[in-house]
């Protein structure tokens, strides 16, 4: 199976409601879609959402990495030489983890198609059903309580509540959300780096003292402040999950060695795809630390790939793959079924995606 062409283009998917965190407000998912074509007629699909505020990867950067590094490196290569092309994807350009993730998942898709096996089975997975949480954007407490109630009515029983915009309101926000939902609904929170270490400990302990029953807090302090993260982990009554602080497998190892977090959040867009995500999962397993699989604001191509990974590693115990559930449209054909909180993988070969509609072409190399 030889790579004969690589195409990339843009797709825009409107959101049900604007997505608001401590870092940004967004009204639609803007994605770069990658398609890798082969001489067998099979095509592999990948996706990279430009999330400059977290990964540093803008749309222009993703397109530049595709045009100048990734596509020229891969054209003409044999998919059966799989480890070599995965390594080439990681090594042909520095950083650019989102573009690498898009290419990496398209290559896994093709490798599965080559051997007629779904990727989760290729990785040894036995489960094909996941239950995701749903994100509640940060807003005024009453608005968040209303959004949480709507989410529960849609069938979700685990909510990830964004906090950190005007931290004085955060305890009030969680109190309003907790009162609006049944007691068996799990609440986890994400501060997206908004708090200082001492402030984080004070807010989190206050929340638990009030009986708000928070499962864990995601990235309470600045991504680069590992000492601060460790400070919160050691003193807070709420478990701490590292998100923006862990991009690469080396980041994960450092956090684990320091004991700086209780949990790790794996996202394909941070680590550069399934190849590196597997290393993070493996090192976390060695340290007895459980992982969450997360996503950016992204569509079904990339979230479907993350779901295959999650089904193949038992150390991934928490699922935050709500990107497709936040979208008002779905241009992706094939792949997993996203039905409310349930994600059910397809048993089609590879990642199972067969087409992405409405892609505006940007560039190509070779022919598809
Ligand atoms: Mg997060």
Can you tell me about this structure?
It is a single chain. With 368 residues, this protein is of the alpha/beta class. The protein has 2 domains: 3-117 and 354-361, Enolase-like, N-terminal domain (Enolase-like, domain 1), CATH 3.30.390; 121-350, TIM Barrel (Alpha-Beta Barrel), CATH 3.20.20.120. 38% of the residues lie in helices and 26% in strands. The chain has 13 helices and 17 strands. The strands form 4 sheets. Strands 5-6-7-8-9-10-11-12 form an 8-stranded parallel β-sheet. The protein has a 4-stranded antiparallel β-sheet with strand order 3-2-1-17. It has a 3-stranded antiparallel β-sheet with strand order 4-15-14, covered by helices on one side. The protein is globular, with a radius of gyration of 20 Å. The two termini are 14 Å apart. The mean pLDDT is 97. Bound molecules: magnesium ion. The site of magnesium ion (MG) has 5 residues, from loops. Residues 190, 192, 218-219, 243 line the site of magnesium ion.
Short description:
The protein has 368 residues and is an alpha/beta fold. It folds into two domains: 123 residues, Enolase-like, N-terminal domain (Enolase-like, domain 1), CATH 3.30.390.10; 230 residues, Enolase-like C-terminal domain (TIM Barrel), CATH 3.20.20.120.
């Amino acid at each position: 199976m030889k790579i004969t062409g690589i195409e990339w283009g843009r797709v825009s998917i409107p959101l049900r409601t604007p997505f608001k965190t401590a870092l940004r407000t967004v009204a639609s998912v803007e994605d770069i879609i990658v398609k890798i074509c082969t001489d067998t007629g099979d095509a592999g699909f990948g996706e990279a959402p430009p999330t400059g505020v977290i990964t540093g990867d803008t749309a222009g950067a993703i397109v530049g990495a595709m045009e100048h590094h990734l596509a020229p490196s891969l054209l003409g290569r044999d998919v059966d030489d799989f480890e070599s092309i995965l390594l080439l994807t990681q090594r042909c350009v520095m950083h650019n983890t989102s573009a690498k993730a898009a290419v990496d998942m398209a290559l896994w898709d093709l490798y599965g198609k080559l051997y007629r096996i779904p990727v989760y089975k290729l990785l040894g997975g036995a489960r094909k059903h996941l239950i995701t949480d749903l994100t509640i954007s940060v807003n005024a407490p009453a608005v968040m309580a209303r959004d949480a109630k709507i989410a529960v009515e849609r069938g979700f029983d685990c909510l990830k509540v964004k906090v950190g915009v005007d931290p004085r309101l955060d305890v009030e926000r969680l109190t309003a959300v907790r009162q609006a939902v049944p007691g068996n609904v799990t609440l986890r929170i994400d501060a997206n780096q908004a708090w200082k270490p001492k402030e984080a400990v004070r807010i989190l302990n206050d929340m638990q003292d009030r009986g708000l029953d928070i499962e864990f807090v995601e990235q309470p302090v600045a991504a680069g402040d590992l000492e601060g993260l460790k400070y919160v982990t050691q003193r807070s009554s709420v478990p701490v999950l590292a998100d923006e602080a862990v991009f690469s497998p080396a980041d994960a190892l450092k956090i684990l060695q320091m004991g700086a977090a209780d949990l790790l959040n794996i996202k394909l867009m941070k680590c550069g795809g399934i190849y590196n995500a597997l290393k993070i999962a493996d090192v976390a397993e060695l340290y007895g630390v459980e992982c969450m699989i997360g996503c950016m604001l992204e569509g079904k191509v990339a979230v479907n790939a993350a779901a295959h990974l999650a089904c193949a590693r038992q150390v991934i115990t928490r699922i935050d793959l709500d990107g497709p559930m936040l979208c008002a449209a779905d241009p992706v054909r094939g792949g997993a079924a996203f039905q409310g909180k349930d994600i059910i993988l397809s048993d089609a070969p590879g990642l199972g995606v067969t087409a992405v509609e409405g892609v505006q072409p940007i560039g190509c190399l070779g022919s598809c």
